[in-house]
C-alpha cells in the first residue's frame, strides 16, 4: 500500500536519514525499531507530511505522492500519533479528537455526533475513566495519550503511525491498545508501530524494520527473528566506535543521595564521585531527567537526604557547585538570539560569580575558539551549541556536572569531541552524571550504569555491561 | 524556582475546586456585587434595583458589551484589537451621514457600516497574518490611520439619524431596552459561533496552540483574519447603536467611551485568557455587566469618577490574579 | 460615501488652516497656511452666524438687570417667562446631569454649584451624575435622573447636537434648565450662559488690534476645532482681524497642551524672528505661550489669556500688556437659583444671558488672589460662599 | 548595533528632509531645541525598552507621567525649598509604581498588559481624586529649570538625556542587561541558569517607572502643570521602541536603537508639520509608517520559533 524508496533527509547539514526503503501492506502491523537517533521519528514525520524528504520517492497505492502539509497526508488516509502530545488542553476530548474536521449538520457543528463517535472509539478502546466531554487538561497524562490515539483513529485512517504510543500508558491500557490494533488489522488498516519495548514489537508486529544511524539494516517477518537477535541488529555497530579510555581512580564522594524522592522519584540512593562518570539509563518516563533536575534543584527532592545539601532552587544547586546540561538545548539551555559570549556568561552573571576572565581559555579548551564570540548562538551547529552550554557551566568550575542527553542531535564528529571533553573533565576531578538513550554511548562512556525504572533505581551495572543487560533491567523483563 | 514547578501543581481542593471556571467565580462576584450594591444604596437612603437603574445598567453596557463580544473573538484567537474605538466613531459617522435623517437610507447606511468595518477588520487581520506584525502594533497602526481620516474629515458631530432608527437607542420592551436586545443577540450569535461552528472551534484552536491547530490542518491565518473581521463588525454594530443614541455621528464617541482598552479589560475580567484559547462570551457578558453594575452603584452613591477609575483598575488586576491562581498551568 | 457640501467646506477650511491636532509629543508646527486672504485667517468657520455675532457684540455694552454685586443673578435683555405652572412646595429635589469634571474650569464651577446648593435650605436633596465626558453616559444619566422624582433637572450638555433627544425627552417630565453649552431645542425652561464666545473672541482680538502696531504679526492659538463654544470665539476674532491691518501669521491648534503650545510659539518665534501679538481662544496655556517668549529672551508681546490665577499672576509680575476675557465660572451658581425661582413660580429669563466681564490692567488687582491655586478661575463668584477658599484649594489669606 | 542601522538610515533621511525645509534646523541651536523636545520621549522609550526586551509591556507610563507632574505641583505649591525633596519623592514614586507593576506581573502571574492597564486607571484616578479633579499648586522655578533651563546653550534636558542614555547603554552591557535579554529570549533557559527571572523583570519595570519620573520632571519643567501632559505617551513610547526594531515578545533589539526610534518618531512629527501635512492626516501617515516599518522588520527576521514542539533534528 505504502512504499518508500531511497528516502534521505538532512537538517542543517546533519544527515538524519539516507536511502531508507520501507513498504507497508494493508492490514499489516509493521514495527520500526532502532536506537534513539536512528532516524525513526524523522522517517515517520516524512510519512505524515510534516517534513518533505530531500531524496527518494513515496508511493501510495502505486501512485507517487508528495505531502506538503500534514493535512494532505491525512486526506490520503495517513494518521499519526505524535510522541509529543498535540492536544489543546482547554478543550474537551471530543473537540480535540475532531479538531479541524468537526462534523457539521445544517451549518452547525454536530456536537452529538462528535461526542457519540468519540464515545464509541473510547468504548472500543475499553476506556471508561473519562468521556468525550471531559476537558483534556484535567486528564492524567496516560489518558491524554489515549485521546491522542483516538484522535488518530477517528479519521478512518488506512495507515496509522504510532510513535512510542505506550510510553505513558499503564499495563491495562496497553492491553486495550493491543486489542484496538488487532481490530484495526482486521479492518485492513496498516499500522506503523515504533517502540523501544521489544515485547510489544513481538506481541503485535507482523514485520519489523530495523533502522540504525539513519539507514535501514533489514526488514524481517517477526517469526524469523528472536528478541536477542533484534537487539543485536539494533545496537550492533562497528567495534571501532571510539570512546575515550576510562580512568581507574574514583575519588571522594561529591554527592550522595539516600532515599531521596519527590513526585516523580522514589527512594533514590546514588553516589557521585570525583573523577567518575555515572551513566543513567532507563526507558522514557522512567525518571531520568527528573533525577537530574532534582539534584540540580530545578524540581527539588522533597524527601530523603542529599549530601552536601538538598538544593531547593536552581541557585542553591549552582551554589553547591552543581551544573545541568539540559536535554533540550534550544528550549532550556540557550538563549538562541543572544551571542555566544552572553550565553557562556549567563550563569556567571546570574549568580554574580564565576571565572569570567578565563572564558577565552575555556572556549579554546572545548575547541570553540574559532567561533566569533558575538555570533548569535542560533547560527551555530548543534555540536557547537552544546559546547556553548558546556562552557556556560565550566565558568562556574562545578564540582558535579549533570549531562542530560549531551549528544542528542549533533553529528558524529562533534559527539566524539563532547565525549572526550566529558572524560577530560572527569579526569580533572569532576563528578559527572550522564543520561543517554543511546546505549552504546552510555555504556561506552560510563564507569557505572544506574538503571531507573518507574522512578526508582532498578539496578546498577559495572562498566562494560552489555546493552542487553541494561535493556533487561530498564524494561523489567527478559527481552 | 516556582516558575518551573508551580505550573505543575494540582488545583487546590475544597470550594476552590468547585469554582475552577472563572465564569463561575465571576457570576458569583456579580451576584455579590448586586447584593452589596443593594445594601449600600439602601443605607444611603435609595433603592438600587429600580426599573430605571436596571434599564440604565443595560443601556450603559450595551455598546461596550457588543464591542467586548467582538474583542472576545480576537482575544480567543490569540490576537487583540486596539482599533475598535476609532472604528466605532467612524461607524457612527458613516451611519449618520448616509442616513442624513431619511428613513429610506437606513438600509444602505447599515450595509455601508458593516462593509466598512468588515474592511477594517480584514486589514487588521491581513497585516497581522501576512505582514507578521504583532497585533498590538498592527491594530494600533490601523487605529492611527482611522484617527487621521476622522480628524481630517470631521471636527464635530455630523449627519443625522432619523427618528425611526433612534428606536434602537431609546425604546424598550418592558424593562429590556432594544439596545440590550441587540447586545444579547450579538452575544448569542457569538456564543453560537464559538460553541457550534467550525470557525468557533478553530478560533479556540488557533488561540490555544497555533502549532497544534496547524498540524490539525487548520489554516490558522484565515481564522485570525475572520476573527478580526467579526470583531470589527461588532465594533461597527456598536457604532450604529451609538449613532442611534446620539442622533448623529460623532468623531469622538469611541475614544470618549474608551472602548479599546475597556473592552479588553471586560474580556479579561470575564476570564478569557489574554494569551488566547480559553474563555468565552458568557464570561465577557459577565465582565461587562460587572463593570456596569459597579458603575451603577457608583452613580447611585454619586461617587466621583476618579474613585471609579481606581476601583476599576483594582478590580481588573485582582480578578485576573485570582484566575491565574485558580487555573492550573498548562502542560509545561 | 456621499458627503454633504458642508463637510467639504469644513475640510477645505481645515486644509487651508493647516491645522495640527492632538498628540502628546511636542512638535514643530506647520508652516503658516497660504491663504487667499491677506489676513491669513483662512475661511470663516461654518459655525459663524452673523446675527448672533452682532447680538453678542451689542450685549457687551448693555447694562445687565439685577443686583450689581451678584453678576450671577444679573441678566442682559431678559425676556421673562411665566413659570407658575411649575410652582410647588418645598423641600425640593434638584437633579443635575454634568457633562464632566475633567478640567479646572468645570472643577471650579462644580465646587461653586455645590456651595450654592448648600445655601438653600429648601433644597431637600441634590442628585448629581457625572457623565465623564461621554455622550452616551449622559443620555443614560438623564434618563436615570428622570426616575428619581426630581423637581427640576439641570443639564450641562457634553455636546450640543447629541444630547438634544435626551433633553427633549426630559422636558416632558420636569422643568429643565440648561447651562454652559446649549441644546437644539427650545423645550428647556431657561438656557443660562454668559454673553458668549463671539464676545470673548472679539474682546481679545479688539485688544490686539488696539495694542499691536499696524502690520504686526499675530499668532492665533486654538485648542481644537469643532467645539461650538470655541469655534465662535475664533470666528469672532477672525472677523475682527480681517477688518484690521494686522497680519495673522498662523492659526494653530494646541489641544490645550502646555508643552505643545510652548513648542508652537517657540517655532514661530524662530521662524519669524518675532511675534507681535498672541490671540488665544482659551487661557489655560497662556502662561506656556508667555514662557516661550521669556525662554527666547524676547519681550512678551500683547497677549490675551483668561481669568486663571497663574495668568493673572504672570501678568502682574511681568507687567504684561494683556487682557483676559472671561467665560465666568459663576454661571454655575445661576442654574440653582433659576431652578428655585421656577419651582416657586417666579419668572425667569427664557434665555439668561449673564454678564461677561473682562479682566484689564485696571481691574487686574481685584481679580488677582495670590492665595488661590494657579488654575483657579477668578470669576467664580464664590468668595461669599461658605467654605471659601479652602474648598476651592486656596489658603486662608 | 548592526540592527540599529536601518533606523539610523531612516532617521538621517528624515533629518535631511527637515533641514531642506528649515535650514535653521541643523544649526546647533535648532538641533538642540529639537533634542530638548525629543528628550522626554527618548527617555521614556529607553525605559519601555527594558520592559519590552524582557517580554512584557508597560502601559502605565503615560498616566504615571501625568500623576508625577500633578503630585509635584501639589506638593511643591510654589515653595522653592520643597523642590529637591519632591524631586526625590517623584523618583521614588516612579520606582515604586514600577515595583508594583513588576511584582504583580511576576508573582501573581497577571499578564503585564493587564497589570499596567489597571495601573493606568488607578494612577489617573488616584491622583485626581487627591487633587479634586484638576491639578493644584504650582511648580517652583528650581523644578522647572530641568525642563526649561540649560547649561550655557545646552538645555539640561539634553544633558540629562545624554547621561541617562549612556547609563541605559552601560546597563544593557552589564550583567543585568545581558541577563535581562536572556530572560526575554528564553525565560526557561535563564531560570535553569540560575537567573532570578522575577527579580530581573521587576527591576526592568522599575527602570520604566524611573524613566517616567524623569520624563515627568522634564515635561513639567518645560511647560508647567497640565492634566494632559502624559496623555498617550505609553503608546508613543511603545511605538518608538518597536520602530527601533525591538521586537514585542522580548529578547531582541538594542537600547540605542529604541532611543533612535523615539528620535525618529519625533523627527517624523516635525517633518509632517513642516511639510504642512494636515495635522489630522499626520496620524494616518504615522500609522502607515509604523506598520510598514514593523512588517519590513518581520519579513527580514522570521518569527521566533516556538520551542514547545521541539525541533526536528533533536528527535530520533
From TrEMBL, chain A:
The reply on keyword Repeat is yes
The ABC transporter domain is annotated at 2-238, 248-479
Q: Which UniProt keywords apply?
A: ATP-binding, Cell membrane, Membrane, Nucleotide-binding, Repeat, Sugar transport, Translocase, Transport
Keyword Heme in the entry? The reply is no
Q: Name one GO molecular function term.
A: ATP binding
Q: What is this protein called?
A: Sugar ABC transporter ATP-binding protein
Annotated source species:
Nonomuraea corallina
Automatic annotation (TrEMBL), chain B:
Per the UniProt entry, the signal peptide is none
Q: Which UniProt keywords apply?
A: Cell membrane, Membrane, Transmembrane, Transmembrane helix
| Record field: transmembrane | 25-43, 64-88, 108-128, 135-154, 174-194, 223-244, 264-294
InterPro entries to which the protein is assigned, alphabetical: ABC_transp_permease
Pfam families associated with the record: BPD_transp_2
Localized where? Cell membrane
The membrane topology noted for this protein in its Swiss-Prot or TrEMBL record is: Multi-pass membrane protein
Instruction: Say if the entry is tagged with keyword Iron-sulfur.
Output: no
- Report the domain of life of the source organism: Bacteria
What is the name listed in the Swiss-Prot or TrEMBL entry for this protein?
ABC transporter permease
TrEMBL record, chain C:
- Gene3D superfamilies from the xrefs? 3.40.50.2300
Hey, what's the signal peptide range on this chain?
none
Query: What Pfam family is a match for this entry?
Result: Peripla_BP_4
Q: Taxonomically, which superkingdom?
A: Bacteria
Q: What is its main location?
A: other
- UniProtKB keywords: Signal
Name the species this protein comes from: Nonomuraea corallina
Location in the cell: Cell envelope
Q: Which residues form the Periplasmic binding protein domain?
A: 96-347
Under what name is this protein listed?
Substrate-binding domain-containing protein
Q: Which family does it belong to?
A: Belongs to the bacterial solute-binding protein 2 family.
Indicate whether Signal appears among the record's keywords: yes
The record, for SUPFAM superfamilies, names: Periplasmic binding protein-like I
Automatic annotation (TrEMBL), chain D:
Q: How does it sit in the membrane?
A: Multi-pass membrane protein
Keyword Oxidoreductase included in the entry's annotation? no
Keywords assigned: Cell inner membrane, Cell membrane, Membrane, Transmembrane, Transmembrane helix, Transport
Transmembrane stretches, start-end: 82-101, 113-133, 153-172, 202-223, 283-301
* Compartment annotation: Cell membrane
Output the CDD domains linked to this UniProt entry: TM_PBP1_transp_AraH_like (cd06579)
Q: Which PANTHER family match?
A: ABC TRANSPORTER PERMEASE PROTEIN YPHD-RELATED-RELATED (PTHR32196), AUTOINDUCER 2 IMPORT SYSTEM PERMEASE PROTEIN LSRD (PTHR32196:SF71)
Q: What is this protein called?
A: Autoinducer 2 import system permease protein LsrD
Amino acid at each position: 500500500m505504502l512504499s518508500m524508496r531511497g528516502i534521505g533527509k538532512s537538517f542543517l547539514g546533519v544527515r538524519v536519514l539516507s536511502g531508507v526503503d520501507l513498504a507497508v501492506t494493508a492490514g499489516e502491523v509493521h514495527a520500526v525499531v532502532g536506537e534513539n537517533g536512528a532516524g525513526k521519528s524523522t522517517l515517520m514525520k516524512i510519512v505524515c507530511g510534516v517534513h518533505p524528504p530531500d531524496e527518494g520517492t513515496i508511493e501510495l497505492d502505486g501512485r507517487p505522492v508528495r505531502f506538503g502539509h500534514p493535512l494532505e497526508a491525512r486526506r490520503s488516509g495517513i494518521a499519526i500519533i505524535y510522541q509529543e502530545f498535540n492536544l489543546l488542553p482547554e478543550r474537551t476530548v471530543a473537540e480535540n479528537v475532531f479538531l479541524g474536521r468537526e462534523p457539521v449538520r445544517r451549518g452547525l457543528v454536530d456536537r452529538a455526533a462528535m461526542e457519540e463517535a468519540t464515545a464509541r472509539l473510547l468504548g472500543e478502546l475499553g476506556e471508561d475513566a473519562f468521556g468525550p466531554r471531559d476537558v483534556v487538561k484535567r486528564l492524567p497524562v496516560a489518558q491524554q495519550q489515549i485521546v491522542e490515539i483516538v484522535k488518530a483513529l477517528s479519521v478512518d485512517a488506512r495507515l496509522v503511525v504510532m510513535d512510542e504510543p505506550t510510553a505513558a500508558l499503564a499495563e491495562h491500557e496497553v492491553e486495550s491498545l493491543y486489542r484496538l490494533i488487532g481490530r484495526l488489522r482486521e479492518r485492513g488498516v496498516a499500522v506503523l508501530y515504533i517502540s523501544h519495548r521489544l515485547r510489544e514489537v513481538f506481541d503485535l508486529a507482523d514485520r519489523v524494520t530495523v533502522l540504525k544511524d539513519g539507514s535501514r539494516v533489514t526488514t524481517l517477518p517477526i517469526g524469523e527473528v528472536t528478541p536477542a537477535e533484534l537487539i543485536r541488529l539494533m545496537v550492533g555497530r562497528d567495534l571501532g566506535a571510539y570512546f575515550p579510555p576510562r580512568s581507574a581512580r574514583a575519588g571522594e564522594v561529591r554527592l550522595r543521595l539516600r532515599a531521596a524522592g519527590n513526585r516523580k522519584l522514589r527512594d533514590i540512593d546514588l553516589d557521585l564521585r570525583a573523577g567518575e562518570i555515572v551513566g543513567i539509563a532507563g526507558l522514557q518516563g522512567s525518571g531520568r531527567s527528573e533525577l537530574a533536575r532534582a539534584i540540580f534543584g530545578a524540581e527539588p527532592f522533597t524527601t530523603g537526604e542529599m549530601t552536601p545539601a538538598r538544593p531547593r532552587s536552581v541557585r542553591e544547586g549552582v551554589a553547591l557547585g552543581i551544573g545541568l546540561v539540559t536535554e533540550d538545548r534550544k528550549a532550556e539551555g540557550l538563549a538562541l538570539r543572544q551571542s555566544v559570549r552572553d550565553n557562556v556568561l549567563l550563569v556567571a552573571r546570574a549568580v554574580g560569580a564565576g571565572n569570567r576572565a578565563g572564558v577565552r581559555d575555556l572556549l579554546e579548551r572545548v575547541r570553540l575558539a574559532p567561533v566569533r564570540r558575538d555570533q548569535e548562538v542560533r547560527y551555530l551547529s548543534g555540536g557547537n551549541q552544546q559546547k556553548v552550554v558546556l562552557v556556560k557551566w565550566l565558568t562556574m568550575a562545578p564540582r558535579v556536572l549533570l549531562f542530560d542527553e549531551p549528544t542528542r542531535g549533533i553529528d558524529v564528529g562533534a559527539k566524539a569531541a563532547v565525549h572526550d571533553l566529558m572524560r577530560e573533565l572527569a579526569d580533572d576531578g569532576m563528578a559527572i552524571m550522564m543520561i543517554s538513550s543511546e546505549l552504546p554511548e552510555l555504556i561506552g562512556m560510563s564507569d557505572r550504569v544506574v538503571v531507573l525504572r518507574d522512578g526508582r533505581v532498578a539496578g546498577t551495572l559495572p562498566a562494560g555491561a552489555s546493552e542487553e543487560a541494561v535493556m533487561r533491567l530498564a524494561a523489567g523483563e527478559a527481552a | 524556582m516556582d516558575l518551573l514547578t508551580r505550573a505543575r501543581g494540582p488545583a487546590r481542593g475544597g470550594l476552590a475546586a468547585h469554582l475552577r471556571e472563572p465564569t463561575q467565580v465571576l457570576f458569583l462576584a456579580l451576584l455579590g456585587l448586586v447584593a452589596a450594591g443593594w445594601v449600600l444604596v439602601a443605607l444611603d437612603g435609595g433603592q438600587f434595583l429600580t426599573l430605571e437603574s436596571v434599564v440604565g445598567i443595560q443601556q450603559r453596557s450595551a455598546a461596550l458589551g457588543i464591542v467586548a463580544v467582538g474583542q472576545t473573538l480576537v482575544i480567543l484567537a490569540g490576537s487583540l484589537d486596539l482599533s475598535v474605538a476609532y472604528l466605532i466613531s467612524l461607524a457612527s459617522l458613516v451611519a449618520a451621514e448616509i442616513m442624513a435623517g431619511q428613513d429610506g437610507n437606513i438600509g444602505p447606511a447599515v450595509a455601508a457600516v458593516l462593509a466598512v468595518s468588515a474592511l477594517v477588520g480584514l486589514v487588521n487581520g491581513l497585516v497581522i497574518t501576512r505582514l507578521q506584525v504583532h497585533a498590538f502594533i498592527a491594530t494600533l497602526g490601523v487605529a492611527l490611520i482611522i484617527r487621521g481620516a476622522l480628524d481630517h474629515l470631521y471636527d464635530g458631530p455630523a449627519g443625522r439619524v432619523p427618528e425611526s432608527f433612534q428606536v434602537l437607542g431609546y425604546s424598550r420592551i418592558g424593562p429590556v431596552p432594544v439596545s440590550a436586545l441587540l447586545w444579547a443577540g450579538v452575544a448569542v450569535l457569538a456564543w453560537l459561533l464559538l460553541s457550534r461552528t467550525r470557525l468557533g472551534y478553530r478560533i479556540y484552536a488557533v488561540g490555544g496552540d497555533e502549532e497544534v491547530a496547524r498540524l490539525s490542518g487548520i489554516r490558522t491565518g484565515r481564522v485570525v483574519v475572520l476573527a478580526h473581521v467579526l470583531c470589527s463588525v461588532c465594533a461597527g454594530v456598536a457604532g450604529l447603536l451609538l449613532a442611534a443614541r446620539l442622533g448623529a455621528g460623532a468623531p469622538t464617541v469611541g475614544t470618549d467611551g474608551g472602548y479599546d482598552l475597556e473592552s479588553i479589560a471586560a474580556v479579561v475580567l470575564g476570564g478569557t485568557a489574554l494569551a488566547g484559547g480559553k474563555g468565552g462570551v458568557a464570561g465577557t457578558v459577565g465582565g461587562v455587566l460587572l463593570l456596569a453594575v459597579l458603575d451603577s452603584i457608583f452613580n447611585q452613591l454619586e461617587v466621583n469618577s476618579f474613585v471609579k477609575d481606581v476601583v476599576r483598575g483594582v478590580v481588573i488586576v485582582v480578578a485576573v490574579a485570582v484566575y491565574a491562581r485558580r487555573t492550573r498551568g498548562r502542560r509545561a | 460615501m456621499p458627503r454633504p457640501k458642508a463637510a467639504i467646506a469644513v475640510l477645505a477650511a481645515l486644509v487651508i488652516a493647516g491645522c495640527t491636532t492632538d498628540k502628546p509629543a511636542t512638535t514643530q508646527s506647520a508652516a503658516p497656511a497660504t491663504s487667499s486672504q491677506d489676513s491669513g485667517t483662512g475661511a470663516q468657520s461654518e459655525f459663524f452666524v452673523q446675527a448672533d455675532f452682532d447680538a453678542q457684540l451689542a450685549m457687551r455694552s448693555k447694562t445687565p438687570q439685577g443686583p450689581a454685586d451678584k453678576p450671577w443673578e444679573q441678566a442682559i435683555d431678559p425676556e421673562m417667562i411665566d413659570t407658575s405652572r411649575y410652582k410647588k412646595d418645598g423641600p425640593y429635589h434638584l437633579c443635575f446631569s454634568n457633562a464632566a469634571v475633567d478640567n479646572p474650569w468645570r472643577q471650579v464651577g462644580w465646587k461653586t454649584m455645590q456651595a450654592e446648593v448648600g445655601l438653600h435650605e429648601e433644597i431637600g436633596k441634590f442628585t448629581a451624575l457625572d457623565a465623564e465626558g461621554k455622550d452616551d453616559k449622559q443620555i443614560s444619566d438623564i434618563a436615570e435622573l428622570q426616575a428619581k422624582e426630581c423637581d427640576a433637572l439641570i443639564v450641562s450638555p457634553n455636546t450640543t447636537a447629541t444630547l438634544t433627544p435626551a433633553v427633549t425627552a426630559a422636558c416632558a417630565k420636569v422643568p429643565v434648565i440648561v447651562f454652559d453649552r446649549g441644546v437644539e431645542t427650545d423645550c428647556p425652561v431657561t438656557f443660562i450662559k454668559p454673553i458668549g464666545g463671539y464676545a470673548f473672541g472679539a474682546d481679545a482680538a479688539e485688544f490686539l488690534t488696539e495694542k499691536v502696531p499696524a502690520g504686526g504679526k499675530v499668532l492665533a492659538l486654538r485648542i481644537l476645532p469643532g467645539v461650538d463654544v470655541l469655534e465662535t470665539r475664533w470666528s469672532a476674532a477672525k472677523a475682527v482681524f480681517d477688518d484690521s491691518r494686522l497680519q495673522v501669521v498662523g492659526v494653530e491648534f494646541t489641544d490645550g497642551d502646555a508643552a505643545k503650545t510652548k513648542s508652537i510659539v517657540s517655532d514661530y518665534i524662530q521662524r519669524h524672528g518675532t511675534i507681535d501679538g498672541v490671540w488665544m481662544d482659551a487661557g489655560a496655556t497662556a502662561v506656556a505661550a508667555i514662557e516661550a517668549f521669556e525662554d527666547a529672551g524676547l519681550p512678551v508681546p500683547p497677549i490675551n489669556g483668561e481669568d486663571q490665577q497663574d495668568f493673572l499672576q504672570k501678568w502682574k509680575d511681568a507687567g504684561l500688556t494683556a487682557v483676559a476675557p472671561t467665560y465666568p465660572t459663576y454661571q454655575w451658581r445661576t442654574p440653582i437659583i433659576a431652578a428655585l425661582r421656577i419651582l416657586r413660580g417666579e419668572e425667569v429669563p427664557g434665555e439668561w444671558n449673564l454678564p461677561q466681564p473682562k479682566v484689564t490692567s485696571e481691574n487686574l488687582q481685584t481679580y488677582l488672589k495670590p492665595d488661590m491655586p494657579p488654575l483657579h478661575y477668578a470669576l467664580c463668584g464664590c468668595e461669599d460662599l461658605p467654605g471659601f477658599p479652602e474648598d476651592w484649594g486656596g489658603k486662608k489669606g | 548595533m548592526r540592527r540599529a542601522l536601518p533606523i539610523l538610515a531612516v532617521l538621517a533621511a528624515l533629518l535631511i528632509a527637515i533641514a531642506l525645509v528649515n535650514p535653521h534646523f541643523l544649526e546647533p541651536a535648532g538641533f538642540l531645541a529639537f533634542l530638548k523636545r525629543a528628550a522626554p520621549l527618548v527617555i521614556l522609550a529607553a525605559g519601555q525598552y527594558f520592559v519590552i526586551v524582557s517580554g512584557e509591556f508597560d502601559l502605565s507610563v503615560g498616566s504615571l507621567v501625568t500623576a508625577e507632574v500633578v503630585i509635584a505641583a501639589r506638593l511643591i505649591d510654589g515653595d522653592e525649598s520643597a523642590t529637591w525633596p519632591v524631586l526625590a519623592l517623584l523618583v521614588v514614586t516612579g520606582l515604586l509604581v514600577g515595583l508594583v507593576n513588576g511584582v504583580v506581573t511576576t508573582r501573581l502571574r497577571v499578564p503585564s498588559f493587564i497589570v499596567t492597564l489597571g495601573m493606568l486607571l488607578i494612577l489617573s484616578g488616584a491622583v485626581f481624586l487627591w487633587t479634586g479633579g484638576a491639578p493644584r499648586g504650582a511648580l517652583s522655578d528650581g523644578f522647572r529649570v530641568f525642563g526649561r533651563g540649560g547649561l550655557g546653550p545646552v538645555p539640561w534636558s539634553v544633558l540629562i538625556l545624554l547621561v541617562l542614555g549612556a547609563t541605559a547603554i552601560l546597563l544593557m552591557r552589564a550583567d543585568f542587561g545581558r541577563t535581562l535579554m536572556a530572560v526575554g529570549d528564553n525565560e526557561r533557559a535563564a531560570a535553569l541558569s540560575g537567573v532570578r527571572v522575577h527579580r530581573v523583570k521587576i527591576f526592568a519595570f522599575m527602570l520604566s517607572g524611573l524613566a517616567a519620573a524623569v520624563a515627568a520632571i522634564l515635561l513639567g519643567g518645560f511647560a508647567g502643570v497640565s492634566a494632559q501632559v502624559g496623555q498617550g505617551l505609553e503608546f508613543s513610547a511603545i511605538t518608538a521602541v518597536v520602530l527601533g526594531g525591538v521586537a514585542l515578545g522580548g529578547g531582541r533589539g538594542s537600547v540605542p536603537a529604541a532611543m533612535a526610534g523615539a528620535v525618529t518618531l519625533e523627527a517624523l512629527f516635525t517633518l509632517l508639520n513642516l511639510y504642512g501635512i494636515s495635522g489630522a492626516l499626520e496620524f494616518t501617515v504615522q500609522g502607515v509608517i509604523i506598520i510598514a516599518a514593523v512588517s519590513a522588520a518581520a519579513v527580514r527576521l522570521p518569527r521566533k520559533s516556538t520551542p514547545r514542539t521541539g525541533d526536528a533534528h533533536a528527535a530520533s
